[in-house]
Write a structure and sequence with these properties.
This protein is α/β, with parallel strands linked by helices and 221 residues long. 36% of the residues lie in helices and 23% in strands. It has a single domain, classed as NAD(P)-binding Rossmann-like Domain (Rossmann fold, 3-Layer(aba) Sandwich), CATH 3.40.50. The strands form 2 sheets. The chain has a 9-stranded mixed beta sheet, sandwiched between helices. Helix 1 crosses helix 5 and helix 3 runs parallel beside helix 4. The radius of gyration is 16 Å and the shape is globular.
């Protein structure tokens, strides 16, 4: 499976690039914004292309099987940039995927993403994510929205709690989120689902199979 990682230079994207390269049946392509970031991916053995999501990266999509959107405006930017990247650039990429025939789209979102969020801390981010998630649900893409709790830089435990609606917030190591993304790409039963993720007691593969409501299958080519 040839997978474009949008936001590859971020913390989640970097871990995902390395793990997909090492995983059987995957061929990752890292999308970076700056050619200076190339060295990191060369060291990982992962091919990279330079492009700006806000300007469109449709030229890289032909021949791909899937896209993982894990890009973000970052905590140092204002509300306008959050809308530009987390909402508008995400939607543009979805449209380009439909145009270029890339059917599989995995969105990294967040618990609480909602166009009408009233969060006192990250309201604009959750609203932007909510709009993008809503648009993705309206497309014909084979989509999955993964909504983790607060992400941590700690080593993954390999165990999570997953549900289409957990009903509470929690925490999740980025490494565990990456393993959830990989299991999502492997499992067609995750199509058209929103899955909330926090640390828990179930092995990641078992938890993803359980919430998907079916079995796991080999990667789709």
């Amino acid at each position: 499976m040839k997978v474009l990682i949008a936001g590859a230079n971020g913390k989640v994207g970097t871990i995902l690039s390395g793990k997909l390269w090492a995983a059987h049946g995957f061929s990752p392509l890292a999308l970076i914004r700056n050619a200076k970031q190339q060295m990191k991916f060369t060291a990982l053995g992962v091919p990279a292309v330079t492009g700006d999501l806000e300007e469109g990266v449709g030229k890289y999509l032909p021949g791909l099987d899937a896209v993982v959107f894990t890009a973000g405006s970052g905590g140092q930017t204002g509300p306008e940039k959050t809308t530009d990247v987390d909402q508008n650039a995400a939607i543009r990429l979805m449209k380009d995927c439909q145009k270029e025939g890339v059917k599989r789209f995995v969105m990294v979102s967040a618990i609480g993403a909602d166009p009408a969020s009233e969060s006192p801390r990250i309201q604009h981010y959750l609203r932007a994510k909510g709009v993008a998630d809503g648009y993705l649900r309206s497309t014909t893409l084979d989509s999955t929205i993964l909504a983790p709790g607060t992400l941590l830089d700690e080593r993954g435990t390999g165990r999570i709690q997953a549900s289409e609606k957990l009903g509470f917030h929690g925490y999740l190591p980025r490494e565990d989120l990456v393993d959830c993304i990989i299991e999502t790409l492997r499992n067609v039963f995750t199509f058209d689902k929103t899955i909330e993720l926090v640390s828990g007691g179930d092995k990641i593969k078992d938890a993803m199979v359980k919430v998907a409501g079916g079995g796991d299958l080999p990667p789709i080519a």
